[in-house]
Amino acid sequence: MAETPLADVFVEMADTLIDDFDVIEFLHVLTERCVELLGVSAAGLLLTDQRDTLQVVAASSERTRLLELFQLQTDQGPCLDCFHTGQPVSVADLTLTTARWPRFTAAAAEVGFAAVHALPMRLRSEVIGALNLFDVQPGAIDGDKLRIGQALADVATIGLLQHRAIHQRDILTEQLQTALNSRVLIEQAKGILAERLQVDVGQAFAILRDSARSRNRRLSELSQAIVDGSEQLAPGPVANRSG
Amino acid sequence: MDRNNPGRGDPMTADRRRRLWAVVVDAARGGAVAVDHVCAAAVSVAGVDSGAVAVILDATPRELVCATDRTALELEDLTLTLGEGPCVDATTGGPVLVGDLTVPECRNRWPVFAPAAVLAGTGAVFALPLRVGGIRLGVLDLYRACAGDLGAEQLADALVLADTACAVLLDDATRHGADRDDQWPERTGLHHPEVHQATGMITVQLGVPAAVALIRLRAYAYSQDRRLRDVAADVVARRLGLGPAGTADDRHG
């Protein structure tokens, strides 16, 4: 692994954190950087909804099948185990874990993944979520990469809690619940764009994100405006079928 | 048919939901479950003294739907009159959990509301938004005379009941009967992203606000005796569209 990209990523994250930023967008970028830096095939972030369940808030790719695989781990899988124990869970060969997580293993195999790793997002004694890494190649992840992965999970935790007084449970709850609700909001906006522009929801996410960036708007703010109907993204060339 | 079956998945979640739905049904005393019963259940499991649900409508900034006692009524009046307080902030943001209204941060944040609420005998306020993404339905407010934070379990219970309150507000009033304990409403959270994607698509298909689109989607799934997530998946895959008044517009062929 080259040194420069790693340093660049942490500079990028630090730059974001000192600014006014969108949590979901930040977590989304972080999962993309995980893929680049750690050489894995996909990364996702799951947060506790404080009702005993994990929810997917960001993923390196919005492919529906991949999101379903992350979502499945709200029921069973390494992420849930990692969340419950607060310890990393690493599975070098998923074909050996069929008995432990039958539905998860089958779903992962179907998407073509051979190995999976889950790293806890910890805030002192509390586990607030997990960073989930998938690889198409079987094999253990090396110690250095695991440490970088854990550092990225820690950065995600810090980003989520922003610069607020994180010792307070009320602030933690506010941030977690707001992040989860923002994700629902983004799904609604994706649906609106998908229908209006006659694209699939994955493409709709890309359009939404590009539009937010080019307008220098927060992803969740633009999504809210789209759901409210106060903002309509101008149809692009793909929109010629929309009414 | 497991539309109402929460048991698939993490057993802890299912246990919590089953236990809480029993409290809600109990509060309904054999009648149809309404948001008042969810509010009463929240007061009981969160270990607070009173509660209220305020709904945001297009026409009015805030409409009180229910309050469990005079204190809650008084505090809701205060919120409405002053236009500030945790219960106002929660309508636009995330949950606002205030374990002690007398601390300086509270007085700074809500200079009029905080002292007035303390004077009215309230030490702690917990305001939980009733929101589904961009759809703002209202807020569930819980009040306690004694100061002190909610415990993690009390918070988890209250958050589940806030979800339940959203579902009850979105669904037909007579639908969640208390005669059968398996009739708890489908959750409104992130669990199935396709539900929210489908809501967005129906918003455009019918030219209605997102809240109406979600109501239609839930009503359609219920009328067809299908799981919400399955109907939503059909909408997202463009196998199904919803026509006026929730009729199906089958897109095959």
Structure summary:
The complex is a heterodimer of chains A (243) and B (253). Chain A has 243 residues and is an alpha+beta fold.
Rg of chain A to the nearest angstrom?
18 Å
Integer average pLDDT of chain A:
86
Report the portion of residues of chain B in β strands: 15-25%
Please report the number of helical segments of chain A: 9
Which band does the percent of strand residues of chain A land in? 5-15%
Biggest sheet character of chain B: 5 strands, antiparallel
In the sheet with the most strands of chain B, the strands line up as: 2-1-5-4-3
Main features:
heterodimer; A: 243 residues; alpha+beta; 5 strands; globular; B: 253 residues; 5-stranded antiparallel beta sheet; two-stranded antiparallel sheet; 7 strands; 15% strand; disordered N terminus
Structure description:
The complex is a heterodimer of chains A (243) and B (253). Chain A has 243 residues and is of the alpha+beta class. Chain A contains nine helices and five strands, in the order H-H-E-E-H-H-E-H-E-E-H-H-H-H. Chain A has helices spanning 3-17, 23-38, 64-72, 78-85, 102-111, 143-161, 169-197, 201-214, 219-228; strands spanning 42-48, 54-59, 89-91, 115-123, 126-135. Chain A has a five-stranded antiparallel sheet with strand order 2-1-5-4-3, with helices on both faces. In chain A, helix 1 (3-17) packs antiparallel against helix 2, helix 7 (169-197) packs across helix 8 and helix 7 crosses helix 9. The longest helix of chain A is centred in the C-terminal third of the chain and has 29 residues, at 169-197. The radius of gyration of chain A is 18 Å and the shape is globular. Chain B is an alpha+beta fold. Helix content of chain B is 47%, strand content 15%. In chain B, the strands form two sheets. Chain B has a five-stranded antiparallel sheet with strand order 2-1-5-4-3, sandwiched between helices. In chain B, strands 6-7 form a two-stranded antiparallel sheet. In chain B, a hairpin with a 2-residue loop joins strand 4 (124-132) and strand 5. In chain B, helix 1 (11-28) crosses helix 2, helix 2 runs antiparallel to helix 7 and helix 8 crosses helix 10. The longest helix of chain B is centred in the middle third of the chain and has 19 residues, at 152-170. Classes of the chains: A alpha+beta (243), B alpha+beta (253). The interface between A and B is large, with 45 and 44 residues.
